[in-house]
Write a structure and sequence with these properties.
- The chain contains 11 helices and 13 strands.
- It is an alpha/beta fold and 339 residues long.
- 44% of the residues are buried.
Length: 339
């Protein structure tokens, strides 16, 4: 069994591999085996790997399974103590793995962790996709230390202490392999977006802890799969977020939150249309609500199992305030300003 398997999921990402894989190999091979799992790319990704990166182990999948099932099918072929799910657009830094492995080896109640995620474009700022560790508010809206909605903070060391979080970014997620398998891995039905929040929340409900360890830092391009403003991305985010809430909230919370989300989602849709003129995203929210309603019953058994196996009644990282109220009405746009 390997100690640590770094697994980069790739789909037509030859340009990203060419640019960022060298840093991963240079700063990781002493402590890990590096894999690239290819989601049936049609570009020259596989040729590039074989010719220029012979140290990389290749897993070839038969089609594009998306982010979630792409990882599930790839990790099932790897025997390791730890998996590290790493985006192809990540630039790592010297000794980035050491604090992650040291912490995990000495904290057996911790299931997963992430490094500090900084932006490649603005290297003194956090990166949107996970910043310095993630939380959710009362109504299921995710936010991070260093990023609330579209407000991204500069990194001045303000969040450099290790911190227990609800979710760790899927861009650089280190997880114990046996817990990954026991919890059921990423939900492949999500395809992409919200899958790491759902996964981490399920682990947290079983009493495991998730941490951000800022002593380790990496740089992320972000937005490599879909542009930031994209109707498909909006659709997946809304549909998957509602599905995650349905799976993970207890019965009393679920009824309350879903009543509010009905209103909040449609307000968001009309805001996209009237204030931004974004017809595609407006329609995507409506489609997401309908899609969630159609497939909700498919997740009933998942919900039953999650609720039966939960050991944590209250989770501190699932915050009780409304992020919308704090951000838009109170003007609290930095993590440190929140209640």
């Amino acid at each position: 069994m390997e100690k640590l398997a770094i697994v980069i999921l790739n789909w037509n990402g030859a340009a990203m591999l060419r640019q960022y894989l060298p840093s991963v190999l240079h700063y990781s091979l002493d402590e890990a085996t590096v894999y690239v799992a290819d989601n049936a790319s049609t570009d020259d990704s596989l040729q590039l790997l074989r010719e220029q990166f012979p140290a990389v182990r290749i897993i070839e999948l038969d089609r594009n399974w998306g982010f979630a099932d792409g990882y599930n099918k790839s990790l099932a072929q790897i025997d390791a103590e730890y998996y590290l799910l790493l985006n192809s657009d990540i630039e790592v830094t010297p000794h980035w793995l050491t604090p992650l492995l040291r912490f995990m080896d000495s904290h057996t109640d911790v299931a997963a962790c992430q490094p500090k995620l900084l932006s490649i474009a603005r290297r003194d700022s956090y990166e949107y996709a996970g910043a310095c560790g993630g939380f959710i508010d009362r109504y299921g809206y995710p936010f991070c230390r260093g990023r609330i909605f579209d407000t991204i903070e500069q990194d001045s060391g303000q969040y450099d202490e290790p911190c227990s979080v609800l979710w760790a970014t899927g861009a650089a997620l280190l997880v114990r392999a046996h817990i990954y398998k026991d919890v059921g891995g990423l939900d492949g039905r999500f395809f992409a977006h919200c899958e790491e929040i759902d996964f981490c929340w399920r682990m947290r409900l079983r009493g495991y802890h998730i941490y951000c360890l800022p002593e380790s830092k990496v740089y992320h391009v972000g937005g490599g799969t879909l542009p930031k403003s994209n109707p498909m991305k909006t659709f997946l985010n809304f549909r998957n977020n509602l599905t995650m809430l349905y799976k993970c909230l207890d019965a009393n919370e679920l009824r309350y939150v879903m009543r509010w989300r009905w209103w909040l989602d449609y307000v968001a849709a009309w805001q996209m249309l009237l204030l931004k003129g974004n017809v595609g995203d407006f329609r995507a929210v409506y489609r997401a609500r309908r899609a969630f309603k159609r497939w909700r019953d498919d997740f009933r058994s998942d919900r039953d199992e999650i609720q039966q196996r939960r050991t944590e009644k209250e989770i501190p990282e699932q915050r009780k305030f409304s992020l919308l109220w704090q951000y838009y009405l109170k003007g609290r746009k930095r993590y440190a300003d929140l209640p």
